[in-house]
């Protein structure tokens, strides 16, 4: 985490494995994904989530800091 302070961070990419975990809100992956979205919003950095396949996943990831990558 000290790297967040020392390295200029311009964006975060959420791997498909984290996005697919969003179907189970009690899973560790879903909690990590939600935490990263909050971190992106707080730090005002852009994020990309890959592998969004359902409307539910898209809704859970909606935030001003997250971009949609259809590939």
Structure, explained:
This protein has 71 residues and is an alpha/beta fold. 46% of the residues lie in helices and 15% in strands. The protein has helices at residues 2-6, 16-20, 28-43, 55-61, and strands at 11-14, 46-49, 66-68. Strands 1-2-3 form a three-stranded parallel β-sheet. Helix 4 (55-61) links the parallel strand 2 and strand 3 (66-68). The longest helix is centred in the middle third of the chain and has 16 residues, at 28-43. The model has no long low-confidence stretch (mean pLDDT 80).
Brief overview:
With 71 residues, the protein is α/β, with parallel strands linked by helices. It is built from four helices and three strands; from the N terminus they run αβααβαβ. The chain has helices at residues 2-6, 16-20, 28-43, 55-61, and strands at residues 11-14, 46-49, 66-68.
> Approximately how much beta-strand content do the residues carry?
15-25%
Major sheet size, sense and barrel closure: 3 strands, parallel
Measured as a percent range, the helix fraction is: 40-55%
Please tally the β strands and state the result: 3
Rounded Rg: 12 Å
The secondary-structure element order is: HEHHEHE
Low-confidence stretches: none
User: What strand line-up does the widest sheet have?
Assistant: 1-2-3
Secondary structure category:
alpha/beta
Shape: elongated
Q: On the 0-100 scale, what is the average pLDDT? A: 80
**Whole-Å distance between the termini?**
29 Å
Count of helical stretches: 4
């Amino acid at each position: 985490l000290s790297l967040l302070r020392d390295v200029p961070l311009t964006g975060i990419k959420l791997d498909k494995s984290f996005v697919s975990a969003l179907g189970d809100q009690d899973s560790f992956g879903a909690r990590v994904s939600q935490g990263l979205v909050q971190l992106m919003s707080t730090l005002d950095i852009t994020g990309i989530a890959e592998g969004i396949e359902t409307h539910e996943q898209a809704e859970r990831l909606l935030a001003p800091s997250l971009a949609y990558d259809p590939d």
